[in-house]
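Late entry, manganese (II) ion complex.
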Amino acid sequence: MDFVFAPHAPATLAIAGSDARFPVHRIYCIGRNYAEHAKEMGAAVDRGNPVFFCKPADAVVANDATIPYPSATQELHHEVEMVVALHSGGAAIAADAALTHVLGYGVGLDLTRRDLQATAKAKGLPWDSAKGFDRSAPVSALRRAAEIGHPQRAALTLDVNGQSRQRADIAEMIFPVAEIIARLSLLFELQAGDLIFTGTPAGVAALRPGDRYLARLEGIAELRGDIG
Ligand code: MN
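Prediction complete; structure with ligand written out below:
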Protein backbone atom coordinates (compact mmCIF):
# COMPACT_ATOMS: atom_id res chain seq x y z
CA MET A 1 0.00 0.00 0.00
CA ASP A 2 1.14 3.49 -0.81
CA PHE A 3 0.94 6.08 1.96
CA VAL A 4 1.42 9.80 1.49
CA PHE A 5 3.82 9.58 4.44
CA ALA A 6 5.05 6.71 6.59
CA PRO A 7 2.32 5.56 9.03
CA HIS A 8 3.13 6.05 12.71
CA ALA A 9 4.58 3.03 14.48
CA PRO A 10 2.09 1.64 17.03
CA ALA A 11 2.50 2.60 20.67
CA THR A 12 3.63 -0.49 22.59
CA LEU A 13 4.15 -1.76 26.13
CA ALA A 14 6.56 -4.33 27.51
CA ILE A 15 5.29 -7.70 28.72
CA ALA A 16 7.15 -8.96 31.78
CA GLY A 17 9.22 -12.05 31.10
CA SER A 18 8.84 -11.79 27.33
CA ASP A 19 10.51 -10.05 24.40
CA ALA A 20 7.11 -9.68 22.71
CA ARG A 21 5.53 -6.22 22.90
CA PHE A 22 1.88 -5.35 23.48
CA PRO A 23 0.64 -3.10 20.62
CA VAL A 24 -1.82 -0.54 21.99
CA HIS A 25 -5.07 -0.14 20.07
CA ARG A 26 -7.15 2.18 22.29
CA ILE A 27 -7.08 3.44 25.87
CA TYR A 28 -10.39 3.44 27.73
CA CYS A 29 -10.77 4.84 31.23
CA ILE A 30 -13.52 4.62 33.83
CA GLY A 31 -14.09 7.46 36.29
CA ARG A 32 -15.57 7.41 39.79
CA ASN A 33 -14.83 3.75 40.46
CA TYR A 34 -13.75 4.14 44.11
CA ALA A 35 -16.29 5.69 46.48
CA GLU A 36 -13.74 7.72 48.49
CA HIS A 37 -12.33 9.29 45.33
CA ALA A 38 -15.79 10.18 44.00
CA LYS A 39 -16.41 11.83 47.38
CA GLU A 40 -13.18 13.87 47.29
CA MET A 41 -14.15 15.08 43.79
CA GLY A 42 -17.62 16.04 45.03
CA ALA A 43 -19.16 13.62 42.54
CA ALA A 44 -21.98 11.18 43.05
CA VAL A 45 -21.48 7.53 42.08
CA ASP A 46 -24.16 6.44 39.63
CA ARG A 47 -24.29 2.65 39.80
CA GLY A 48 -26.32 2.56 36.58
CA ASN A 49 -24.11 4.86 34.52
CA PRO A 50 -20.36 4.48 34.85
CA VAL A 51 -18.34 7.40 33.46
CA PHE A 52 -16.10 6.39 30.53
CA PHE A 53 -13.59 8.47 28.59
CA CYS A 54 -10.64 7.77 26.30
CA LYS A 55 -7.02 8.72 25.83
CA PRO A 56 -5.20 8.37 22.51
CA ALA A 57 -3.14 5.18 22.18
CA ASP A 58 0.06 7.17 21.71
CA ALA A 59 -0.40 8.83 25.12
CA VAL A 60 1.25 5.75 26.69
CA VAL A 61 4.62 6.28 28.34
CA ALA A 62 6.85 3.38 29.30
CA ASN A 63 8.34 2.62 32.69
CA ASP A 64 11.32 4.71 33.84
CA ALA A 65 10.59 7.74 31.67
CA THR A 66 10.89 11.44 32.34
CA ILE A 67 7.59 13.07 31.44
CA PRO A 68 7.93 16.74 30.52
CA TYR A 69 5.57 18.90 32.58
CA PRO A 70 2.59 19.32 30.22
CA SER A 71 1.62 22.60 28.62
CA ALA A 72 -1.52 24.57 29.44
CA THR A 73 -1.91 23.49 33.06
CA GLN A 74 -0.94 24.72 36.52
CA GLU A 75 -2.41 21.63 38.18
CA LEU A 76 -1.11 18.30 36.87
CA HIS A 77 -2.66 15.55 39.01
CA HIS A 78 -1.75 11.90 39.52
CA GLU A 79 -4.37 9.13 39.54
CA VAL A 80 -2.88 5.69 40.20
CA GLU A 81 -4.92 2.92 38.57
CA MET A 82 -4.83 -0.77 37.75
CA VAL A 83 -4.60 -1.19 33.98
CA VAL A 84 -6.19 -4.12 32.13
CA ALA A 85 -4.82 -5.24 28.75
CA LEU A 86 -7.00 -7.17 26.28
CA HIS A 87 -5.82 -9.83 23.82
CA SER A 88 -9.24 -10.15 22.21
CA GLY A 89 -12.50 -8.28 22.26
CA GLY A 90 -15.99 -8.03 20.87
CA ALA A 91 -19.31 -6.27 21.35
CA ALA A 92 -21.87 -7.02 24.05
CA ILE A 93 -19.50 -9.25 26.01
CA ALA A 94 -21.17 -11.05 28.93
CA ALA A 95 -19.63 -10.27 32.32
CA ASP A 96 -19.08 -13.96 33.05
CA ALA A 97 -17.00 -14.31 29.85
CA ALA A 98 -15.23 -10.96 30.12
CA LEU A 99 -12.01 -12.09 31.81
CA THR A 100 -11.26 -14.54 28.98
CA HIS A 101 -10.39 -11.43 26.90
CA VAL A 102 -7.76 -10.21 29.38
CA LEU A 103 -4.13 -10.74 28.45
CA GLY A 104 -2.82 -9.26 31.66
CA TYR A 105 -2.54 -6.46 34.16
CA GLY A 106 -0.33 -3.51 34.93
CA VAL A 107 -0.33 -0.29 36.89
CA GLY A 108 -0.55 3.18 35.38
CA LEU A 109 -1.17 6.85 36.05
CA ASP A 110 -4.18 8.59 34.56
CA LEU A 111 -2.44 11.97 34.42
CA THR A 112 -4.96 14.79 34.52
CA ARG A 113 -4.89 18.54 33.92
CA ARG A 114 -7.18 19.07 36.91
CA ASP A 115 -7.65 22.80 36.30
CA LEU A 116 -8.84 22.18 32.74
CA GLN A 117 -11.08 19.35 33.92
CA ALA A 118 -12.68 21.61 36.54
CA THR A 119 -13.39 24.24 33.87
CA ALA A 120 -14.79 21.60 31.51
CA LYS A 121 -17.06 20.22 34.23
CA ALA A 122 -18.29 23.71 35.17
CA LYS A 123 -19.11 24.53 31.57
CA GLY A 124 -20.44 21.10 30.58
CA LEU A 125 -17.61 20.72 28.03
CA PRO A 126 -15.70 17.57 27.00
CA TRP A 127 -12.72 16.32 29.04
CA ASP A 128 -10.37 15.57 26.13
CA SER A 129 -7.81 18.28 26.78
CA ALA A 130 -7.90 17.50 30.53
CA LYS A 131 -7.41 13.74 30.11
CA GLY A 132 -6.17 12.88 26.61
CA PHE A 133 -3.04 14.98 26.28
CA ASP A 134 0.38 13.82 25.08
CA ARG A 135 2.18 11.44 27.49
CA SER A 136 -0.82 11.35 29.85
CA ALA A 137 -0.76 7.57 30.30
CA PRO A 138 2.40 6.10 31.86
CA VAL A 139 1.94 2.31 32.21
CA SER A 140 4.16 -0.41 33.69
CA ALA A 141 5.20 -3.60 31.95
CA LEU A 142 2.22 -5.96 31.77
CA ARG A 143 1.98 -9.22 33.70
CA ARG A 144 0.23 -12.06 31.91
CA ALA A 145 -2.96 -13.42 33.47
CA ALA A 146 -1.72 -16.86 32.38
CA GLU A 147 1.03 -16.38 34.95
CA ILE A 148 -0.67 -14.45 37.79
CA GLY A 149 -4.38 -15.19 37.31
CA HIS A 150 -7.01 -12.47 37.61
CA PRO A 151 -6.33 -10.51 40.80
CA GLN A 152 -9.37 -9.79 42.95
CA ARG A 153 -7.44 -8.16 45.79
CA ALA A 154 -4.14 -6.30 45.65
CA ALA A 155 -2.85 -3.10 47.21
CA LEU A 156 -2.77 -0.22 44.73
CA THR A 157 -0.35 2.45 45.90
CA LEU A 158 1.40 5.60 44.75
CA ASP A 159 4.42 7.19 46.38
CA VAL A 160 5.78 10.56 45.27
CA ASN A 161 9.32 11.45 46.37
CA GLY A 162 9.16 8.54 48.83
CA GLN A 163 5.93 9.74 50.49
CA SER A 164 2.65 7.86 50.28
CA ARG A 165 -0.03 9.69 48.26
CA GLN A 166 -2.62 7.05 47.38
CA ARG A 167 -3.32 3.65 48.90
CA ALA A 168 -6.29 1.35 48.46
CA ASP A 169 -7.15 -2.18 47.42
CA ILE A 170 -8.54 -3.07 43.99
CA ALA A 171 -11.23 -5.04 45.87
CA GLU A 172 -12.77 -1.61 46.62
CA MET A 173 -13.61 -0.95 42.96
CA ILE A 174 -17.31 -0.18 42.50
CA PHE A 175 -17.36 -1.75 39.02
CA PRO A 176 -15.07 -4.81 38.97
CA VAL A 177 -13.01 -5.60 35.86
CA ALA A 178 -15.50 -8.06 34.36
CA GLU A 179 -18.32 -5.55 34.70
CA ILE A 180 -16.23 -2.72 33.22
CA ILE A 181 -15.47 -4.87 30.15
CA ALA A 182 -19.11 -5.92 29.78
CA ARG A 183 -20.39 -2.35 30.03
CA LEU A 184 -17.68 -0.85 27.79
CA SER A 185 -18.43 -3.47 25.14
CA LEU A 186 -22.01 -2.16 24.92
CA LEU A 187 -20.62 1.23 23.89
CA PHE A 188 -17.55 0.22 21.84
CA GLU A 189 -16.49 -2.94 20.04
CA LEU A 190 -13.45 -3.90 22.09
CA GLN A 191 -10.36 -5.19 20.31
CA ALA A 192 -7.07 -6.89 20.96
CA GLY A 193 -4.65 -4.19 22.10
CA ASP A 194 -7.16 -2.19 24.11
CA LEU A 195 -6.09 -0.94 27.54
CA ILE A 196 -8.55 -0.11 30.29
CA PHE A 197 -7.67 2.21 33.19
CA THR A 198 -9.92 1.01 36.00
CA GLY A 199 -10.25 4.16 38.12
CA THR A 200 -8.33 5.76 40.97
CA PRO A 201 -8.79 5.67 44.74
CA ALA A 202 -8.74 8.78 46.96
CA GLY A 203 -5.66 10.93 47.43
CA VAL A 204 -5.25 12.50 44.00
CA ALA A 205 -2.95 15.53 44.18
CA ALA A 206 -0.48 17.63 42.24
CA LEU A 207 2.75 16.50 40.59
CA ARG A 208 5.45 19.15 40.21
CA PRO A 209 8.57 19.37 38.08
CA GLY A 210 11.27 17.15 39.58
CA ASP A 211 8.81 14.83 41.35
CA ARG A 212 9.60 11.12 41.24
CA TYR A 213 6.69 8.66 41.29
CA LEU A 214 6.48 5.00 42.19
CA ALA A 215 3.16 3.27 41.47
CA ARG A 216 2.60 -0.30 42.60
CA LEU A 217 0.02 -2.99 42.15
CA GLU A 218 1.29 -5.20 44.96
CA GLY A 219 2.96 -8.38 43.79
CA ILE A 220 2.05 -7.65 40.16
CA ALA A 221 3.52 -4.51 38.68
CA GLU A 222 5.59 -1.41 39.39
CA LEU A 223 5.89 1.86 37.50
CA ARG A 224 8.57 4.46 38.10
CA GLY A 225 9.28 7.77 36.48
CA ASP A 226 9.67 11.46 37.01
CA ILE A 227 8.25 14.76 35.94
CA GLY A 228 10.66 16.90 33.94
MN1 MN B 1 -8.80 8.19 36.43
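The domain at 12-227 is CATH 3.90.850.10 (Fumarylacetoacetate hydrolase; domain 2). Will revisit in the morning.
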